[in-house]
Specification:
The protein is mainly alpha-helical and 281 residues long. Among the domains are: 41 residues, no CATH class; 110 residues, no CATH class. 79% of the residues lie in helices and 0% in strands. It is built from nine helices and no strands. The protein is elongated. The chain starts with a helix and ends with a helix. This is Transposase. It comes from Nocardia lasii.
Amino acid sequence: MTLDDVAGELYSLDPGDFVATRAERAARARAEGDRDLAKAITALRKPTIAAWTVNLLARHAPAEITALLDLGAALRSAQRQLSGDKLRTLGTRRQQVVTAMTKRAAELAAEHDRPAGEQVLREVGQTLTAALADPEVADQVRAGVLSSTVTYDGFGPAGLVAITGGKAAPKKQAPRASTSEKNAQREAEARKELDDAESGLATARAERDAAEAAAAQAKSDLDAIETKIADLRAELEHAEQQRHFAHTAEHRARTEFTAARSQFDRMLKWVERLRTRLEDD
């Protein structure tokens, strides 16, 4: 029994079973004389519902997770190359994939009797986005051992920062550029800025479209539920009427039964009197 084995088991469980199973595994490790392993197992944190949902996705949709993380590698490569065309294309694809994966996570959570609410799904989407940007988060998502969700705010062209180490090199006197060179440089800078802006616009458009689609779906679901509620209320009203009619019929039948029984008792007594009289004669 290794820590990785135990972690893999624990984070695949329903959150409600996590604490008890963790205590059992730690006790087993202590009984086997491995106190360090027992301590490490005890230190494993119970996952939040959103983290458990991401772990569930990693275990039940590994191919989709791999495709998502491959897209993250391609995005990071495009960022390093400052490729506006690639960033626009991949940025749109990123939002589509994250939206689809979040929906899949919701389906899996419902199948495992833990329907995910809006906040949980938002955290799932944020974690998947973070996995696209951060290889360490990607590794945790792939392994399915998250204890909490992750957010990442530095994704995209605006998050790129050039960093150099050591002392700054001494400045050299640059030759003066000609007017045409200056114009060409300004045009190149403007084109690069336009590429970055268009990339950001494409990502924002994709996010807007995804949000609009989600809102439309939510409205459709709400309308369907309200229609169902109206139908159920109509059925309930009809059932109430049927119950009232049945109650009235049952009351009438009991009254008639009581009257018939009284008549039967009178007739029985009359017959018995006549029989007695005949026997006496």
